[in-house]
Protein 1
Amino acid sequence: MTAVRTTCPYCGVGCGVLARADGAGGAAIAGDPDHPANFGRLCSKGSALGETLSLDDRLLHPVVRGVRATWDRALAEVARTFADTIRDHGPEAVAFYVSGQILTEDYYVANKLMKGFIGAANIDTNSRLCMSSSVAGHKRAFGTDTVPGTYEDLEQTDLVVLTGSNLAWCHPVLFQRLAAAKAARPGMRVVTIDPRRTATSELADLHLGLAPGSDVALFAGLLRRLAAAGRGDAAFIARHTSGLDAALAAAAAFDIGAVARVTGLGRGEIEQFYRLFAETERVVTVYSQGVNQSSAGTDKVNAIINAHLLTGRIGRPGMGPFSVTGQPNAMGGREVGGLANQLAAHLEIGDPAHRALVQDFWQSPQMPTQPGLKAVDLFEAVHDGRVKALWIMATNPAASLPDADRVTAALARCPFVVVSDVVQATDTSRYAHVLLPSTAWGEKDGTVTNSERRISRQRPFLPPPGETRHDWRQLAEVATRMGFPGFDWPDAAGVFREHAALSAHGNHGTRDFDIGAHAAIDRAGYDALAPFHWPQPAGEAPRARFFADGRFYTPDRKARFVATPYRAPAGRTGGARPLILNTGRVRDQWHTMTRTGKTARLTSHYAEPFVEINPLDARHLGLAAADLALVESDRGRALLRVLVTARQRPGSVFAPIHWTGQQASQSRIDALVAPHVDPVSGQPESKFTPVSLTRFAAGLYGFAVSRRRPAVEGLDYWALAPAAGGFRLELAALQAPADAAALLAAVLAPAAGAEVLAYRDVTRGIHRFAVFADGILDAALFLAAEPVETARGWLIGQLGQALDGAERLRLLAGRAGAGGADPGAIVCSCFSVGVNQIAAAVRGGACTVEAVGACLKAGTNCGSCRMEIGRLIDASRAAEAG
Ligand SMILES: Nc1nc2c(c(=O)[nH]1)N[C@H]1C(S)=C(S)[C@@H](COP(=O)(O)OP(=O)(O)OC[C@H]3O[C@@H](n4cnc5c(=O)[nH]c(N)nc54)[C@H](O)[C@@H]3O)O[C@H]1N2
Ligand SMILES: Nc1nc2c(c(=O)[nH]1)N[C@H]1C(S)=C(S)[C@@H](COP(=O)(O)OP(=O)(O)OC[C@H]3O[C@@H](n4cnc5c(=O)[nH]c(N)nc54)[C@H](O)[C@@H]3O)O[C@H]1N2
Ligand code: SF4
Ligand SMILES: [Mo]
């Protein structure tokens, strides 16, 4: 089979992938050496794509009210209910909630249907939770939503400031490009600004562990300092900007003392950062969710941009503010106008001339004149009945929106919910009246745009399974059934052609987004389309950077400084809720785990939901490592494993966003998060929720491995993950069961003829069971009154093995024994290398990441774990020295 060139469906780096179908539903995956985003590299998630292609959990046919249905029936139901709702209650009574994970073609059709034909603007997307503060900040400063720079800027610069970005885990291949550039040019400096120490801060020359939510003060202080020190580019400011005086007036309060007070940082480290920034001409400031997901998110963005405008460091090689996007097509969604307050092709909904332009182009009967509801308000409108029919596509709001229990309540009372997804069971699909099966990555056909404005093709290399259909096709078929013309494209190429033509329609250089060069692309051209940067107007070559000429897209073509007075986060800690909950991502999982959660390799890095806490706070609360903690806010609660680490600052805890009701008993972190939003962008404050932690007084803890899926019903705590050859399960209960064997039967259901070996130590509350079927280990259950201490990696490795008498005894003793060392928690997921193995290699003399790689292979494939290996080497050597 020949390899198909496509693009990774995870993060906004947008790596090129070579996929070679194996003819049996799977594919061999490799990085595309010719793709300009990654030049052949892939991270742990990208490398494991081949393991996520199985069909066992896929949604393969439409379902209407719990019953399998034909497409004809399902589409008729959707079209009729939407049409009836609009007839009876007006166009504002229906809504779409879509995603930065659909392709540009899907997104274009959704937006055209809602804004051009239904005639309302109630289409919003999970990008509201992700990029909307950056969009709003860009528009305030530049007049348009424009990312000025490219990935090369991170390699060509002398100073990279990473603020609110865990690039090492969230944009791993871009991080590797940065790390390689720094290794080649050691004079390059990296500063990280994040309340936590992360894998990214391992690369930093300076780490500023600022107080959560205080970035505006830090950057306003920087602006004030740069101006006072005469570091401004006077010619650039005079010719190409406006509003500096007001911005400086707002920043005046932030002398070094005030910055230190608000950020909690030392004066020395603040001075050091300001000096580096002032004295380095080539600076790139990279930012992500620590900036965007804040009730001051838009101000944070503008405070950063202000510093670049003052110094004229924008649009030139190695210089500029750089918002890195999260989802694979966050940028494409912005290009088609997928947010409720945009139109299409970077045109404005509030501008009558823009509306006329789009209406003329679409030949549409009506256009909304007002922005629609933003995500949080949209679900509030579902809750109070204003929105009566909702179509959710490629996102899991029951788990990912703030105040998630209110979201599920809204979904439960909504008269009509349509969900298009690729998997059967999600926390959201539970509430669907109609479930529509979508084609997934590997089957889909279209384009995505990455963080640096590069448009790449996603190409199919597998046939659509079952009755799955493309998302854009589902939308177009409903539109046609509702009687709307203009939705009859033959293929995705036709949609892209129309999108490209609209971008050039009446443009003449007045708008940044113009890909008119592709307005007449044919199917063959589309199939052969190589990755390109926008803009590319008709007759021109693609342009890599914006704004080097100092011309922006405001009416006077000048960039605007924005005054950004500091505002504290919306939530208040203290009293019953003394800690701040910060939320985010881990290296090997993608969002709500519907795809990355399928592979044993990716779940081995972290196998259960957890909360990170500083040792001081843990001691104060009586929490020990491996305890379970009930984390509560005024909105909701979660039950999570405690991870004690000094990398977490005192007073704040961190929990990942990934686990849902599909993998664990009570782990949806957004059930806790209050729906406070930024007043400009509407983006929720996902990183600052006042919470309390209490020890979960479990009377029983357990760990199980099994070749079959365990039954978890009725357990007070459970977390289930795939493991090589089966499943792994963590469990806990408030009360130890009277009959441990009954628990074994309920959870692992040993087959009638199975041989069950048991061990117990009543005084310590220990029960251990090993179940053998046909002589091989079928399942094992370890119960104890304390958190179970056992060599988990080793135990998983025994699953499906034939064990002799001595080995069986050792298994029940829960110890690996001489013959089989326990790898420990997995660090390198490509080669399944754990902490214990790395520590042993370091003791054996391997004292660099390269040396560890040479003896264990760890870190030598995708490289995503290299920062963690480096940290383990440092820790082991410090322990030896001590
Ligand atoms: N492995 C993995 N990679 C991903 C994803 C994934 O699910 N898994 N998702 C993708 C998506 S959609 C997105 S949006 C990106 C997100 O990428 P990132 O934004 O890099 O990831 P997060 O972990 O959400 O948050 C980044 C950091 O912000 C810090 N932070 C919290 N509060 C503050 C603050 O007040 N100020 C500052 N300066 N920092 C703060 C957090 O401690 C955290 O380390 O990742 C993308 N890449
Ligand atoms: N507390 C807190 N909350 C957060 C965040 C945070 O940092 N903290 N981050 C926010 C951010 S930045 C983001 S981006 C969101 C992400 O949150 P979500 O978008 O809700 O998360 P996903 O798991 O990516 O959901 C995608 C869904 O689409 C399905 N899917 C995948 N491919 C396709 C396809 O081609 N077509 C269709 N129809 N379905 C598909 C998947 O199976 C899955 O069910 O979470 C947000 N929520
Ligand atoms: S960095 Fe990893 S997740 Fe992101 S696009 Fe590249 S391979 Fe995919
Ligand atoms: Mo995101």
Note: The CA atoms of residues 203 and 639 lie 33 Å apart.
Protein 2
Amino acid sequence: MRRVSLFASALPLAGLAAAYPRVDGPAPQAAAVQFASRAATGKTVIPKDSFNSFDTHWSYNYPWGTDHNGGARMNKQKVSTANDVLTLTASPATGEPPATNGGQQYPVHYLSGTVFAKQQFTVKPGGGYDFEADFKAPVAKGTWPAFWLTAVKGWPPEIDIAEWKGSGKISFNTFNTSSQVAAHDVTYPSPENWHTIRAQIRTASATDVWVKFFMDGGEITTQYGKNYVNSAFYLIVDLQMEGSSGSPGPSAGTTFQIRNVQVTDYNP
Ligand SMILES: *[C@@H]1O[C@H](CO)[C@@H](O)[C@H](O)[C@H]1NC(C)=O
């Protein structure tokens, strides 16, 4: 999504990470066994039926408000849930003032829906998370749905677990800086069907993580994020429009559906 922040990150991330040394030495046996079983099974922190109890797990709009870097303004009315499926709907709108982000203006041509997880996610030394969900995502020009993680403070870090930029492809991206980004696009088959996307995030060093991306059970690519350890993330599901997906977007309404979101915590 290439989130542009007004603020450069002032956090001394490397210094923070150094303050949390990796546990490399031999641990007492009981502790080691406990760690091993917990690391192997993980702890479910967002359950597959989270949309059945929406207010427990999710909030409306972006964590910073209704606007971002595209042609949609988010509105609670454009979010609905039924049978544990979340539906975000974008509809053409006129007379909306432009959105402002990172000192740039974006003409607003749609009202659409966005939600973010109430919980924040911080990879701890030796730990990580799995993020998984099923999607029915639009791929037409001007539609820009995504399921992504972005830094609570500053920017980056950002991991686009799944992003569709109006090209018929799906993109998997990890940002070190705005110009240092790993971006991997693959053809997105039959968008009218459900597809399962999973990102597995684990520490690669005291400061860095690796991210493995899977689609429908098949491994797609591995990327690395610098200084992601001990950095808090928001998890966002949005149906942004135009922007990176081109314009004009569709003249009719567009929907983005997601179900079975599951987040598993593998932190020690
Ligand atoms: C980001 O930083 C990590 C850790 O240094 C490195 O392995 C990776 O290649 C970098 N990614 C890009 C796109 O430069």
Note: Residues 5-38 have pLDDT under 50 and may be disordered.
